[in-house]
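Ops channel
N.P.: pipeline sanity check, posting one input/output pair.
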């Protein structure tokens, strides 16, 4: 929480606290004025004194109201501004993550931290700034003012406060771990709900609706029970405060009545003490709300700073170097995922020059996508190096490196918006003519022109209003729109038929004649015209060469051909 406090604006916080102090002083002095009216004005029938003190009470009430309005406004402004900054910082940090950090935290947890956790911290700051000052001030101030009126009556509060303090400590001690558990369970709830939404077609196809519902129901039941337990523990605080303060009021009346009879306590002092007991009750009620939020706020702050303070596995170099656009080289590259015992890629070495096409082929799980992810430094290599020209990509600024690479992922990803806004992700200053040229190369012009709004046609979340082939062609068009040196197509033609794929490959030749084209594919027909073909087998290079050489000399490549064509088709 200290890191959260450091983020608060000092001057604005001081001003807000100043208004809060005005509210507290006015509220604490009002019962004293009431006591003076009763003990002096009423007892002596001094009407002018009663009127003068009445005007003072009105003035104190007005100033207390103004103080309350101003500090509430300022504290709300501080907390909501803090929430906005935290969400922006988390999103900015997440954008700098490599895929390793995403794998480590998980998408559902990141969403929870950027929404629910930030809200918990924001609520705690808004209530904490105000009530952690207001409640103790009302408590201590009420005891002091009561002491000035009658030390005997103040002793009642001095006996009550330690009991309340111990009670709150015990409640907090048992509630805090439950709130930590609740946030973890909320991550799981979001995970199951998100997976259910994304995989609803698969769930229905296999008739697993009941099983998936039971899994979600089990987590939801545990979250609900934990919340009920924590809420039950915290709910004890209000009745406890009410009971203790009510008992204190009884003792005040009993002792006050006895004091009035002895002539040692004034009637007005009893009325003021009862008013202070009400203020103390309100103060503890406010404090209860804050204490209720402290465990959740602390856990949420910790989870937020786990993201903000997470060290990046892919870092910017201390000294950046520019690359000459001549070639792409993998030199003795090894790579493994975090925590994995076995290497995903081992001793990968090859070179491809500008104007050439590199094709990567192999069985599922052989590391094809992992290899192309290394080109943009979505992960860093464990051993060896990757060079563009003669420059190790780890010595390049990440933004400049990614400016050289245009990437089409294995999963076609479109963003909510329009076709135009999605295309501009590839090149932000692209004209409509350039967009249409890219769409034409990707064989997407025909279906885009049939849409009523053309480039301004809406794109639903994830491109849900387009077929798999249409999404893939739009993603290819977006990649071709960007002016880059290396174009990576990670199994990006899989949803296209042979005719459309051939047309796309032919159309983009002119655009990519000076660039390096990297194609990950499963089909021999997609890679057979490549200048360099890398055959992967269990993360190692099993073959390197062109189609004619590999089909004659490489057993793994021959097996892939056999699995896709009849033996007679090898001559193709």
């Amino acid at each position: 929480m200290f890191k959260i406090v450091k983020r608060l604006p000092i001057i604005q916080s001081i001003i807000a606290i100043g208004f809060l102090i005005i509210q507290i002083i006015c509220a604490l002095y009002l019962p004293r004025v009431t006591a003076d009216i009763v003990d002096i004005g009423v007892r002596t029938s001094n009407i002018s004194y009663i009127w003068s003190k009445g005007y003072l009470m009105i003035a104190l009430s007005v100033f207390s109201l103004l103080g309350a309005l101003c500090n509430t406004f300022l504290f709300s402004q501080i907390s909501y501004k803090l929430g906005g900054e935290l969400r922006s910082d988390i999103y900015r940090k997440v954008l700098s993550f490599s895929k390793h950090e995403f794998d480590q935290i998980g998408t559902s947890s990141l969403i929870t931290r950027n929404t629910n956790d930030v809200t918990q911290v924001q609520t705690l700051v808004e209530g904490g700034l105000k009530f952690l000052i207001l409640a103790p001030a009302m408590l201590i101030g009420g005891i002091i003012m009561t002491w000035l009126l009658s030390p005997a009556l103040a002793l009642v509060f001095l006996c009550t406060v330690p009991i309340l303090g111990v009670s709150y400590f015990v409640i907090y001690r048992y509630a805090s771990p439950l709130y930590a558990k609740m946030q973890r369970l909320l991550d799981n709830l979001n995970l199951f709900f998100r997976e259910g939404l994304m995989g609803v077609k698969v769930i229905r196809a296999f008739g697993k609706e009941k099983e998936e519902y039971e899994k979600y129901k089990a987590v939801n039941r545990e979250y609900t029970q934990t919340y009920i337990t924590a809420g039950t523990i915290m709910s004890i605080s209000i009745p406890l405060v009410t009971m203790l303060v009510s008992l204190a009021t009884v003792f005040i009346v009993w002792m006050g009545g006895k004091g009035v009879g002895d002539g040692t306590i004034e009637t007005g002092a009893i009325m003021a003490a009862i008013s202070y007991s009400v203020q103390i009750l309100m103060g503890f009620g406010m404090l209860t709300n804050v204490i209720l939020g402290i465990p959740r706020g602390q856990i949420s702050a910790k989870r937020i700073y786990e993201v903000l303070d997470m060290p990046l596995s892919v870092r910017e170099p201390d000294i950046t170097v520019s690359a000459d656009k001549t070639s792409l080289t993998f030199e003795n590259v090894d790579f493994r995922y975090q925590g994995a015992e076995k290497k995903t890629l081992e001793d990968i070495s090859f070179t491809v020059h500008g104007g050439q096409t590199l094709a990567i082929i192999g069985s599922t799980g052989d590391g094809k996508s992992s290899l192309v992810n290394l080109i943009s430094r979505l992960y860093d290599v464990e051993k060896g190096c990757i060079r563009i020209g003669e420059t190790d990509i780890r010595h390049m600024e990440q933004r400049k490196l990614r400016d050289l690479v245009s990437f089409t992922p294995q999963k076609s990803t479109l963003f909510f918006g329009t076709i135009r806004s999605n295309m501009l992700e590839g090149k932000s200053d692209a004209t409509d003519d350039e967009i249409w040229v890219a769409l034409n190369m990707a064989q997407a012009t025909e279906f885009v022109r049939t849409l009523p709004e053309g480039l301004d046609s809406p794109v639903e979340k994830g491109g849900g209003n387009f077929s798999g082939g249409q999404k893939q062609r739009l993603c290819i068009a977006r990649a071709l729109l960007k002016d880059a040196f290396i174009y990576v197509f990670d199994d990006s033609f899989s949803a296209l038929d042979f005719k459309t794929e051939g047309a796309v490959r032919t159309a983009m030749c002119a655009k990519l004649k000076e660039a390096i084209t990297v194609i990950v594919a499963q089909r021999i027909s997609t890679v057979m015209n490549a200048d360099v073909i890398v055959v992967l087998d269990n993360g190692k290079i099993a073959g390197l060469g062109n189609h004619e050489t590999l089909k004659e000399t490489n057993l793994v490549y021959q097996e892939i051909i056999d699995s896709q064509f009849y033996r007679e088709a090898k001559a193709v």
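N.P.: looks fine end to end. The chain has three domains: 2-308, 325-404+485-498+512-546, 412-483.
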